[in-house]
Amino acid sequence: MTTTIVSTVELPDKARELLRNYDIDLYELPRLSKDEWTDVLSRTEVLMCWCGREFNLADNINSMKRLKVIQTYSAGVDHLPFSVIPSNIEVYSNAGAYSVPVAEHAWAMILTLAKGLHKPVLNAKDYLGNEITSPRKIIESILLVLGTGGIGKEIARIGKEGFRTHNIGINRSGKSAEYFDEVYPTSKLLDALPRADIVAITLPLNKHTRGLIGKEELRALKRGAIVVNVGRGDVVKEEDLYEVLKERQDIRFGTDVWWVHNDHEEIPPRTPLITLPNFLGTPHIAGGAQMEIAEYAMIRAVENVIRYIKGEIPMNRVNRDDYV
Amino acid sequence: MTTTIVSTVELPDKARELLRNYDIDLYELPRLSKDEWTDVLSRTEVLMCWCGREFNLADNINSMKRLKVIQTYSAGVDHLPFSVIPSNIEVYSNAGAYSVPVAEHAWAMILTLAKGLHKPVLNAKDYLGNEITSPRKIIESILLVLGTGGIGKEIARIGKEGFRTHNIGINRSGKSAEYFDEVYPTSKLLDALPRADIVAITLPLNKHTRGLIGKEELRALKRGAIVVNVGRGDVVKEEDLYEVLKERQDIRFGTDVWWVHNDHEEIPPRTPLITLPNFLGTPHIAGGAQMEIAEYAMIRAVENVIRYIKGEIPMNRVNRDDYV
């Protein structure tokens, strides 16, 4: 049986090529007229989407009677309207597609903050004597990574191989992971935080991780800790973060991800975080840096869909109990 | 025979302890009255100094009739008044004492510049679409290091192990060095520059390296190259750098070292480099970050002096033909 696949964006040539040898009908929505959409969506078995602003899934899902699979191009799926997605539809994320660029960005923020490059001054005495800029050493420091998935592992690898860090991981079960010297379940977070020189947050946003980092966790940080968030903004409580960063200037905090209000990641955020000298922000660009990254992500998504077409088990199946 | 050793600064306890078992008289100038200086200097066999602002070597060398060894606490010796130092006095530098913190600082500048963190903007489109901030990938890039000594090797190691870089080294002879995939003599510099995604300058300043990087070399850089200088400012021609950075906004340049005029490293420099958006500067703080680094450097210097006391050959003998 021919499988009808729809992508909500145009695919790179390489991705189309991968699909050529399979019994499929491939449609890319930007190449169709709006009139053709209705017919195509009614036949769609596999939907590939960012399911962000380019395609409103909630508005369209009722007309997709034959839909069996949603494959996202994004690594996170926290923005999907799970409550309106029928339970017989499987959702697969693109977790891991952005591991390398996001881990590089995380390390760039860590080193920028560690060496005071976020607010450099040209007077050596001021630079060295200032809590905001005084350089901190990285080599052999203790790195705590929240989340031991693709991004977390790559951050741990760079730390261990490049800077001889001792790596502590936190994940849901506490099961061991490559490049980590120790791994604990989330319940042990408060024991791990005071040990860390560097903390990297790579967690997806779901009902277990939302607001995981609040005042108590932030106040448990070691003096002089560096924290970066490349997971999702709402893993950290915004008001709590602002309050603790204001009272503890020794903590330096960098984020590429922000807080969502009304389905919208607001940059700048509602609190005056960006005015704090111990805060560094970038506008959610870690994963979307270059065309080649987006292409790689789409190709990976297509490869996962091919697993489905071949009757294999696709990767990154989303457990919707984590979200609803 | 008792050896008289003078340090121009107070030593950390650990360094004094190292010297305890040897037949020496140790004097620390800040603990002496100015009246005692004359007598002590006249008996000094080994001088340990920064020989910067804390001790004017040119003014004092004539009264140090028994001086045989100058051991610097600094890694570079380009500031020493070689023309007034009698030729029977051996000079030893502290090369290598700052390799780890300086290499970390070099990588911090590389990543800051690569990910646009030196001028971050909060609008994603502006960030990604702007030549000044658009993120560049690091993994598997080509890293060219000028100088394959302690700092150069550590920069190469972090690149290779942390970011899978392909490492090209440049040194005087072209002899191979650990962590480098290829090494060429300085005469091949112009062939290597167009290949590099990242260039790290770690060269000491001497008559062979002064002004090595001028317009021709800078214009030979690959589009989008990232260059950092943690060696000495005057290895690069300041006016040429300003001119090329102004005409080529694709190049991003970071420096921790500056240009010397009248024996003084001038920060900010004479050209308006610091106004350029593709320039990042820190005030020569890479090596002097924390007390522990300065202590480590002094201990290393003392260990080298102990080699001399024991009749061994000290490390880092300075070839003064490189400087005069």
From TrEMBL, chains A, B:
Signal peptide: none
Keyword list, A-Z: NAD, Oxidoreductase
Superkingdom, taxonomy of origin: Archaea
GO molecular-function terms, A-Z: glyoxylate reductase (NADPH) activity; hydroxypyruvate reductase [NAD(P)H] activity; NAD binding
Gene3D superfamilies, sorted: NAD(P)-binding Rossmann-like Domain
Domain (D-isomer specific 2-hydroxyacid dehydrogenase NAD-binding) ranges: 110-286
GO CC terms in record: cytosol
Any Pfam family hit: 2-Hacid_dh_C
Matching InterPro entries: D-isomer_2-hydroxyacid_DH, D-isomer_2_OHA_DH_cat_dom, D-isomer_DH_NAD-bd, NAD(P)-bd_dom_sf
D-isomer specific 2-hydroxyacid dehydrogenase catalytic domain boundaries: 9-319
Keyword NAD applies: yes
CDD domains noted in UniProt: 2-Hacid_dh_6 (cd12165)
PANTHER family xref list: 2-HYDROXYACID DEHYDROGENASE YGL185C-RELATED, 2-HYDROXYACID DEHYDROGENASE-RELATED
Family: Belongs to the D-isomer specific 2-hydroxyacid dehydrogenase family.
Protein name, per record: D-isomer specific 2-hydroxyacid dehydrogenase NAD-binding protein
Organism in which the protein naturally occurs: Vulcanisaeta moutnovskia (strain 768-28)
Lineage, top ranks: Archaea, Thermoproteota, Thermoprotei, Thermoproteales, Thermoproteaceae
